[in-house]
Each structure stands twice: as structure tokens, then as C-alpha cells.
TrEMBL record, chain A:
<dbReference type="InterPro" id="IPR050601">
    <property type="entry name" value="CPA3_antiporter_subunitC"/>
</dbReference>
<feature type="transmembrane region" description="Helical">
    <location>
        <begin position="71"/>
        <end position="92"/>
    </location>
</feature>
<keyword id="KW-1133">Transmembrane helix</keyword>
<keyword id="KW-0812">Transmembrane</keyword>
<protein>
    <submittedName>
        <fullName>Na(+)/H(+) antiporter subunit C</fullName>
    </submittedName>
</protein>
<feature type="transmembrane region" description="Helical">
    <location>
        <begin position="28"/>
        <end position="51"/>
    </location>
</feature>
<feature type="transmembrane region" description="Helical">
    <location>
        <begin position="6"/>
        <end position="21"/>
    </location>
</feature>
<comment type="similarity">
    <text>Belongs to the CPA3 antiporters (TC 2.A.63) subunit C family.</text>
</comment>
<dbReference type="GO" id="GO:0005886">
    <property type="term" value="C:plasma membrane"/>
</dbReference>
UniProtKB/TrEMBL annotation, chain B:
<feature type="transmembrane region" description="Helical">
    <location>
        <begin position="300"/>
        <end position="318"/>
    </location>
</feature>
<dbReference type="InterPro" id="IPR003918">
    <property type="entry name" value="NADH_UbQ_OxRdtase"/>
</dbReference>
<protein>
    <submittedName>
        <fullName>Na+/H+ antiporter subunit D</fullName>
    </submittedName>
</protein>
<feature type="transmembrane region" description="Helical">
    <location>
        <begin position="162"/>
        <end position="184"/>
    </location>
</feature>
<feature type="transmembrane region" description="Helical">
    <location>
        <begin position="107"/>
        <end position="124"/>
    </location>
</feature>
<feature type="transmembrane region" description="Helical">
    <location>
        <begin position="34"/>
        <end position="52"/>
    </location>
</feature>
<keyword id="KW-0812">Transmembrane</keyword>
<dbReference type="Pfam" id="PF00361">
    <property type="entry name" value="Proton_antipo_M"/>
</dbReference>
<feature type="transmembrane region" description="Helical">
    <location>
        <begin position="274"/>
        <end position="293"/>
    </location>
</feature>
Amino acid sequence: MEILMSFVIGFLFMAAVYLMLSRSLLRIIIGTAVLSHGAHLLLLTMGGFGGDAPPVLQHGETSYVDPLPQALILTAIVISFGVTAFFLVLAYRSYQELETDNMNLLRGIDEDD
Amino acid sequence: MINFLLFPIIVPFFVAMVLLFFPSKVKAQRTITMLALVINLVISLRLIHLVHTKGIQVVTLGSWDAPFGISMVSDMFSALLVTSTSIIALFVVWTSMFSVGIEREKHFYYPGILFLLTGVNGAFTTGDIFNMFVFFEVLLMASYLLIVLGGEKKQLRESIKYILVNVTSSALFVITVGYLYAVVGTLNMADISQKIAQVNQPGILTVIAVLFLVVFGFKSAIFPLFFWLPKSYAAPPIPVLALFGALLTKVGVYAIIRTYTLFFIHDTAFTHELLMILSIITIVFGLIGALAYFDVKQIIIYNIIIAVGVILFGASIMNETAMEGAIFYLLHDILLKGALFLLIGVLIHVTGTTNLRKMGGVLSTHPVLAWSYLIAAFGLVGIPPLSGFIGKLLIVKGAIEGDELILSLVILLSSLGVLLSVIRIFIHAFWGEAPQEVMYKKDAHYRALLVPAVIITAITVFYGVGAEVLMPYVTQATSTLMNPLEYIQAVLGGA
């Protein structure tokens, strides 16, 4: 399972980097979303798989799942959705204002400041 | 257990939430924000006193015992940083009332600043590595708002890059925390330190140390990772720039110092050497930038990068003297960067431009501004008895004790470069003749902007002259950093 997950995470990172290196702002944003999901999957994998019961100690379970990575991912997912939403709104606003979503044209020059 | 150390986080957070309800009542927003910041300052001074007399303060949220619950820890290092943060925020808000413009104030400017404070104070106080990530995100979210607020073309363009860099580094932060969790199986910082000591830091932890350096290096703008800073910071209005320049990079510096004195101390040969080399290169590149520009904002912005290099160089030596110097210089830099940016803000208001070539002769029309700037500039360079001198003296002394003679010479020579860069502003803007077509403003607005800038400059002077009074606190902070056992015992309770 860990091996499979490593491949999935690696693929997500690859796709994220590919998207983030493109010129279109929208693709970059999707890239960042994919990147953060890769990171979350990695966090889940790092906690280790195995254990098939929920982590309730009273019932005498010995093979339970580590609950901490799931709690962490919950937090991280919320944050990454928030940032992605903000980023999308920002992209829309700057498309209205600057009339382009091409990163090459968004390069600032000192003279126009 | 006292919950007192949570107040610097809760007060700004709560007030910010209240302020969200009536955005267009600007006067109320200003008054409440100032009131909250004064309360915050008093609380953080009291916190310093508490830590000084009673030792490290710890709160475990929900009373779950330390390695399992989330702990908030306030040792002297974080208490001092929280206090400097409160001082800077107070003066930035004071200046903001006269300079950011009513439109920004109506669109959640003050809540943004208060949320930023929540994040910064939280990152300084937390004793849990994942919560440090969460508080980083809180402050980053607030900084995204502040950097783009106003929606000028330049702001929109630069904030896209700022957000992109920070989103990437946040993803890397999550990944690094995941690796660390996989290796040591805990997130509590004191517990991590103890577990790493038990396994005697194998190679994989050195990899994680370098990953942490990359993550926090993005935030603190060390050598290969500072590329985003100069242009992004130049976009927002001056008070926001002052707040960012004084605080945001310092949070990254704090995180590097914390992890490199608490976690990765058992095999320093590679990690701390790397940190040392990077910090020296950071100073050199910062100097190149500071000397290359003829734009007042850019010159001071590149000076942020230089200061980060100096502080981290002091921290990387890992002996008492250099660490004391690093802490002293860190606090000095928070206050002084705030002062310099506010003074530059007044200068830009007076001349109406950021280009040095279009300025001149301000000394004869605005003497108070000119002399305050000169004092702040000398403080930055480190002319005794101003505050930069003491920090640099301790760092260089520590470096010589740690047999880093040549690198300490770089620090000393860098002071000359800094002197050249800031005195260039003095020569071009304040000396000489004013360009003929320009009429310099000297209105009530100018005086209103000048007052906070001059007061904070005076505070930096006191910080240098009164170093004798402050040294016990800095020494206490150093001793906690140099003996992680104190920190571990305070959090885990004598384990």
C-alpha cells in the first residue's frame, strides 16, 4: 500500500510542477491545489498504514489506526481550500484589472511603478 | 497553570472578529484597534515579567498532558519577540490612520492587521510544530489581504507571485512535518527534541533539518530563496511594508533559530555549517541589492535581507555570546526596520517620489525628519552607543570565540556596505539643493506622520543606550535556547 501511495503522490507532485510551470495563471492555481493535495496524501502515508479498527482504546483494540495524521490533514485541507479560493478570486480581479492571465506579461518593470 | 500567555493571541483575534461587523465606521475601528494594541503591549510586558520571575510558562490546551495535547509555551525568547511585535504594531496602526487612505480602512484593513498579529504571536508562542504551520497560515492569510488591499495594478501583479511562493512553501512545510512525524512519531516540540536525542540524530533527520531550512528560508528570505521579497514588499503602502519588513521575515528567522537550537543539535557539523554559509551569502547578496538601487524603498528592503543574514550567522555559531548577539540583534532589527520604514514613508510623502535622483535638500526644509533618519541609519549600521552596535559586537565576539575569524570580518565589512547604502539616501535626499520644479509639502499631515516615526526612533535609541537594563532578559532567553533541557522540562514536566 505504501509503495502504491508513493507512486500516486509522486504523480501528483509531477502534475503540480508541470502545471505550475505553465504561463497561464489558472493552470498555476490548479497546480498549487494539486500540490497541496499531494502533500496531504503524503502526510497520511507518513502516519503509516495498518490497523483496521478506529482508535478507541477502551474496547481492547490492539490494531488501531493512528488518528493524528487524519486530524492534521483535516486542518491542512481546510487551509489549502481557503488559500485556493482566495487565489482564484485574486486571479479573477487581476484579470479584470490587468487584462491578462499570462505570467510573462505580469513581469513588473521598474519604470511603470 | 496560568492561561496568561494566551492573551497576546486571543486579544487581537477577538478584537479583529468584533471589528468585522462594522467595517465602515472608521473612527470606531481606529479607536478600538489602538486600544487593543495598547492592552496587548501591557499584557506582553507583564508576560516578560512573569517569565523572568517564574520561568517558562506552559499551557496545555484542554489540559491534555504535554506530548498528546497541544501546548503553548512562552519562554523568554518568545516573550521578547511578542513584545516587540506589539510595539511595532502599535506604531504602524498609528501611522496608518494618516496614510493608508479611508478606502482601505473601510475594507477590513485593521482586522487584517490584528489577524496578522494573531498569527505572528501564535507562531512565536506555540510549542507544537504543526500548530506553528497553522499559525503561519493565519499570518500568511492576513498578509495576502494586506498586500493586495487597495487593488492597484502593481499590488495585484506582485501579490500573485507572493501568494504563489508562499503556497508552495506551505505545501513543503506540510511535507516536512509529515516526514518528521514519520521518523519521531510526535509533534510536540519538546518531545521531538527528546526523541531526537534518544535516537542520536541519524542522517534522515539531517535531511529533515535541511528541509526545514528551505521552508523557513522562504519566509525569512535567506540566500537562494529571497528573490520574491524585494518586489512583493514594494507593492503595498508604507505602513503595511513597515509591518511586513519588521515582522514577517523575523517569524521565519524565529522558526529557524527554534528548530536549530531545539531539534537538530546533535549533529551540527553539516546543518549549522550550511546555515552559516547561506547566511554569509545572504549578507553579500543583500548588500549588492542595497547598493544597486536608487529607490529608497528598495534600499531599505534589501537591508532586511542583510539583517536576516547577520542574525542567522550569529545563531549558527551556537555559543552563548553569539546567540545573545543574535537575539539582541533580532529585537533591534524588528524595532529599527519599523522605524526606518516609517521615516522613509514620511520622506516619500514629503517629496512625492521614491526615486533618490528626484530628491534633494530636504534637510533645510524638514530638519527633524532628516536628523531622525540619520539616527535610525546610524542605529542600523551599528554606531555605538546605538542598538545595532551591541548586537553586532556580541555576534562578532562569539564568532571569534567559535574560531570563525574570517567570517566575522565579513560581518564587520558588511556594516560599511550598510553605511554606504543608507547614507546614500541621506546625501541624495537630505543634502544638496532641491530640484527646482518641486515644492516640498510641510502640512499638518506631515507632522502627524512624523510623530510616530520619531517616537519609535527614540525607542530604538533607548534600546541601545539602555542595553544594560535589557541584557538580563536577553541572557535568560539565550540560556533557554542553549540548554534545550530547560525547555523540555518545562513542557514535559521534569521528564
